[in-house]
Write a structure and sequence with these properties.
Helices cover 48% and strands 14% of the residues. The protein is an alpha/beta fold and 330 residues long. It folds into two domains: 282 residues, Metal-dependent hydrolases (TIM Barrel); 43 residues, no CATH class. The protein has an eight-stranded parallel sheet, sandwiched between helices. The protein is globular. The two termini are 16 Å apart. The relative contact order is 0.14.
């Protein structure tokens, strides 16, 4: 079956990580920046391991150096994912990448991204929201600065707050103040956990950050008490199977815990994380899940309805998305 035509909703995509390689090459050409070694012979991003990935990621971001570039990036990323049926995306974005954490610069970047998102709604009938993201390995004090920026710029399509970065740096408890600030401002909350660090990081995110979603979260399977809590509190996992396998956390999809988590009653969604870096897209994700776990259209329909339910968007947008899903999957 051709899965690219099925409508899909993604809750976990890093905006810079969604930059198509040809888009980055074009910006590099315009800016006369040498990115030799960034791509393989096929034109894809090239790296050997996780640390190498972080280095290549940072190099690619060198050409994303202004609001205009981020305006174009939002359009390029949404156009690329729309080719695989994606109708709704939530992008992680950070003021640290957009203006170096300066609130005046961040406002300009955010305005550009909002304008691009509005364009995509009209021209491509695809929707997106933004999750403001402190970078964990920059520390707890820096996270408070980003949370202060979050409080002062909430509105429009900026609806979520969720920490990314190195999971091994500090603990979720160290960032509770920043998350309290975001919660008081009315943000919906998520956190990267349970990918590099085990089930305890998921539990600590629930205990100290009081999130309603977990980015990744798959290592919760290592502690059934944590799994039970996810079920009881209706916590949604933003699962990225292709990313997990590409980075070597699981050797293949058959050994990935997404199916087991579903069987235990955890609400999961499927996303691509940094799709061109991990050589994946939503068509591949769906096709692989269907082939390995025998997931049917009814499964994908339910998966997407759950994603809409957990999405950090307004009721009117949810009604539009549900209408599309019900019509197309029928």
């Amino acid at each position: 079956m051709n899965y690219n035509k099925l409508p899909k909703c993604e809750l976990h995509v890093h905006l810079e990580g969604a930059a198509p390689p040809e888009f980055i090459r074009q910006l590099a050409k315009e800016q006369k920046i040498d990115l030799t070694g960034l791509f393989d012979s096929d034109g894809d991003y090239f790296f050997n391991d996780f640390n190498d990935f972080l280095n290549i990621y940072d190099q690619a971001c060198k050409v994303l150096n202004g609001p205009e570039e981020f305006y174009r990036l939002v359009i390029a990323a949404l156009r690329s994912s729309a080719q695989h049926g994606v109708i709704y995306t939530e992008f992680f974005v950070s003021p640290d990448f957009c203006g170096g954490g300066d609130i005046l610069a961040w406002r300009k970047y955010l305005a550009a991204m909002e304008e691009a998102a509005a364009y995509c709604e009209v021209e491509m009938s695809v929707y997106c929201r933004f999750i403001l993201t402190p970078i964990r390995h920059l520390g707890a004090e820096r996270a408070r600065v980003i949370a202060d920026i979050a409080q002062k710029t909430k509105g429009g399509r900026l609806t979520g707050f969720g920490m990314g970065g190195d999971e091994t740096f500090l603990t979720p408890k160290d960032f509770s103040y920043a998350f309290d600030m975001a919660r008081e401002a009315g943000y919906r909350l998520t956190n990267h956990a349970g990918e590099i660090v085990g089930a305890n990081s998921v539990l600590d995110s629930l205990e100290y950050l009081k999130v309603e979603r977990i980015g990744h979260g798959v290592r919760a399977i290592e502690d059934l008490a944590v799994v039970q809590r996810l079920v009881e509190e209706n916590i949604t996992l933003e699962v990225n199977p292709g990313s997990n396998i590409f980075l070597g956390f699981y050797k293949d999809l058959k050994s990935h815990p997404i199916q087991r988590l579903c069987e235990l009653g955890v609400q999961v969604t499927v996303s691509t994380d940094d799709p061109p870096f991990f050589k994946t897209n939503m068509t591949k994700e769906y096709s692989n899940l269907a082939n390995v776990f025998n997931w049917k259209n009814e499964t994908f329909f339910s998966l997407n309805m759950d994603a809409v339910k957990a999405a950090f968007c307004d009721d009117k947008t949810k009604e539009i998305l549900n209408s599309i899903l019900e019509r197309e999957y029928a």
